[in-house]
Amino acid sequence: MSRIPEDLTRGSVSRHLVRLTIPMFLGISSMMLASMIDTIYIGWIGTRELAAVSFSFPVVMGLSSVSMGLGIGATSVMARTLGRGDREGSYLVGAHTLVLVALVVLVLAAVGLWLREPFFARLGADADTLPLVDAYMRVWLFGLPLFALPMVSMSMLRAIGDARTPGALMVVGAALQVVIAPALIFGIPGLTNGIGFLGSAWAFVISRAITFVITGIVLTRRGVIRPLGALHAMLASWREVLRVGVPSTLSQMIGPVSMAVVIGLLAPYGHAVVAGFGVAQRIESLALMVLMALGSSISPFVGQNSGAGATARVREALALGYKFSIAWGLVAATMLAAFGRPIVGAINDHPDVIDATNAYLVIVPISYTVLGATFVAGSCFVALGKPLPSLVLTLSRMVLVYLPLALLGDRLFGYHGIFVAGAASNVIAGLAGALWVRRVLPNGASNASTAVAGTVGHA
Questions:
Q1: Model confidence pLDDT, tens digit, residues 388-408
Q2: Is there a domain that residue 258 lies in?
Q3: pTM of the model
Q4: Based on the structure, what is the number of domains in the chain?
Q5: Concatenated DSSP letters of 52-78
Q6: Would residue 6 count as lying in a domain?
Q7: Is residue 8 part of a domain?
Q8: What's the count of helices (H) and strands (E) in the chain, helices before strands?
Q9: What is the pLDDT of residues 185-234, one digit of tens each?
C-alpha cells in the first residue's frame, strides 16, 4: 500500500491510539458537558421540566443510534477499503453513505412526529408532563437531519485517520449550544424574554445547523463529497454499509430500549425519581466519555489494520484498550461515589431527585472497570466487518440478563434493585465481549490479549 497521511498500519500502536483518542475525547467531553449544562439549566426551571427531558432520552438516543449505526457501518467499510490501498473507493463509499443517511433520517423524523404523543403516554408520562415532552420532541425532531449528517460525516473522517477535524467540529457544536441555550431559555436582560426549557431544544437545533454547514465545507475540501457515479455502484455501497450498519444500529438501539424499560419501571416511583435517573444518565455519560472515545479510536485502527492483514497490531491495540479501561473504571467509580451527591445538589435540590441520582452513581459505576471491555470489543467486531457478535451480546445482555434481573430487583428492593441489575448486566456483557473477540480474530489470541482478557475476567 502506498504511504498516505491517514495510514494507521505503520508506526507505534499506542501513539496512533493516543492521537486518535485525544481529539475524540475532547469532542465527546464537550458534547457531554454541553448536555450536562443544559440539564443544569432545566433543573433550575423545575423538576417536572427535568422529568420531561428525561422521558425524551430513549427516543433521542434511539434516533441518534440509527445515525451512529450507519456511521459505524461507513467507518468499517471505508477503513478496510483504505487499508487495502483504495483511497478513491473509500471516499466514494462515504459520499454514497451521506445520501443514504439523509433519506433514512428524514423518514424517521416524520414517523417520530406522527407517533410521539402516544409513545410517551405509553411510556408513563402523566397528564402534566406529557405536553412538555411533546413540545420538546417537536423541536428536537426538526433538527434531527442537521444532527445526523454531521455525526456520520465525523465517523467517516475518523475512518480515514483524521481525528482532529471531527474533534474540533464537536467542540464547536457544543460551544455554540452552551452559548445559545441560556439566551433562549432565560432571555437576555433588557433585550429579550426567554422561552423556558424549549430554549434548550432550539439551541440544539441552531448549533447543529451551523455545524452542518461547516462539516459540508470540510467534506467538500477533503474530496469526500463528489459525483456519486452509477446507481449500481451506490446500491453496492449501501449494501455493504448496511451489512455492518443495520446490526450495529440494532446494537445501538438496545441501549435506548433498555432505558425506556427502566423509565417505565421507575415511573410509578414518581417524576422526581425519573428526573434523578435522567440526571444520573448525564453524569454517567461524562464519566464514560473517555471509554467512548477509546472505542471510537479502536474502530478505524482495527479497520485499516485488518484490511492490511496486520492482525498482530489489532491484538496489541485490544490489549492496550483493555488495560486502560480497567484503570479508568476504577478512577471513575471512586470519584462518582465520593462526589456524586454534591454534584446532583448543584443541579436540583429536590431530596428525591438527589437520593435517586446518588443511588445510581454509587451502585452502577462499580461495573465500569469491565464495561470498558464492551466498548473496545464491540468496536473491534464492527471494524472487522463482523457486527453480529456485538448484536448478539447486547441483545442477550438486555433480554436474558438485564430485564429479568431488573424485574426481580424492582420487586425485592425497589428502584435500587433496578440499578443493581444494570451493574450486573454491564459486568456480564464486558466479560463475554472480551472473551468472544479473542475467538473472532484470525489465528487465535496473542499472549498479551489472553492475559488481558484473563485480567478482565478476574475483575
A1: 888 888 888 888 888 889 889
A2: yes
A3: 0.65
A4: 1
A5: HHHHHHHHHHHHHHHHHHHHHHHHHHH
A6: no
A7: no
A8: 16, 2
A9: 888 776 777 787 788 889 888 998 998 899 888 888 877 777 787 888 88
